[in-house]
């Protein structure tokens, strides 16, 4: 069978598709169409069956093609209508229910007042929480310093020195004044001022660091060095004076220990330990120190109390 004859057979069966049972191509329908086209003598029975299968495939292909074309026509027709309907629906909602699309630009004044009250409450709560955080940090620093103090005391008790037995004295604050000296001894503790220098010089303020060497001459002792005090504890503090202004220490270092209020450490007999009192946010106009007061406390077998030492007329160097 030629290609043209096969196409004629397919066209004939396609025209008779409504007569076919459930739209299926049977051998009888193929045989009838062959007779109608005068082609029955060209094919044997087996050939007719094979042609029936081929015609069925071609027939299904045409059906799917028709379905696809119909679907495309529906899409082309329906999509613009759906888009137009959606646009009209949105216009209706905007005109009648603007709050649904966030276009309500005239909020109630009572709601604004309520929001302002809530903002004020939140701000007050934030300030309260910040203050609580600062207080917690203060308590944390004090606990840290107390732990350091106990560690130092524990070391001192574990390593006693062979010194002559003397009566433990607990007395009021001992204050030593030095007019121009940078080196002197008090209660067996030698304080040597190495000098003070500027650092972190900014546009309006600077930091001043005063460094000392502290040495115990009698025995191993515990020592605390103070920068500033907190209201929770009546600790002394270090300060400096210039042009009638008082500046309180902000940080302190004693050997490897440091803190914002005090530092604790243990001194070994005749071994100096470096310490630093730090003053932050000092005005740039300060170029020398009229008076420097260093506060400390001693824990030993012969003295357990505070010691204040003073230095006068200190020049500041650039680091």
Descriptive account of the structure:
The structure is a single chain. By secondary structure, the chain is α+β, with helices and mostly antiparallel strands. The protein has two domains: 3-90; 143-318, Sandwich (Immunoglobulin-like). It is 39% helix and 30% strand. It is built from four helices and 13 strands. It has helices spanning 3-15, 27-37, 45-96, 109-158; strands at residues 174-177, 183-186, 189-199, 205-216, 221-226, 239-242, 245-248, 251-254, 257-259, 262-267, 273-283, 288-299, 304-318. Strands 1, 2, 3, 4, 5, 6, 7, 8, 9, 10, 11, 12 and 13 form a 13-stranded mixed sheet that branches. Helix 1 (3-15) crosses helix 2 and helix 1 crosses helix 3 (45-96). The longest helix is centred in the first third of the chain and has 52 residues, at 45-96. It is elongated and about 135 Å long. It starts with a helix and ends with a strand. The model is unreliable at 161-173 and 175-179 (pLDDT under 50).
CATH architect. name of the largest domain: Sandwich
Shape: elongated
CATH class of the largest domain: Mainly Beta
The description of the largest β-sheet is:
13 strands, mixed
Number of domains: 2
Helix percentage: 25-40%
The H-and-E topology, N to C, reads as HHHHEEEEEEEEEEEEE
In short:
The protein is an alpha+beta fold and 319 residues long. The protein is built from four helices and 13 strands.
SSE layout:
Layout: H1 3-15, H2 27-37, H3 45-96, H4 109-158, E1 174-177, E2 183-186, E3 189-199, E4 205-216, E5 221-226, E6 239-242, E7 245-248, E8 251-254, E9 257-259, E10 262-267, E11 273-283, E12 288-299, E13 304-318
Parallel strand pairs: 1-13, 3-13
Antiparallel strand pairs: 2-3, 3-4, 4-11, 5-10, 5-12, 6-7, 6-12, 8-9, 8-11, 12-13
Helix pairs in contact: 1-2, 1-3
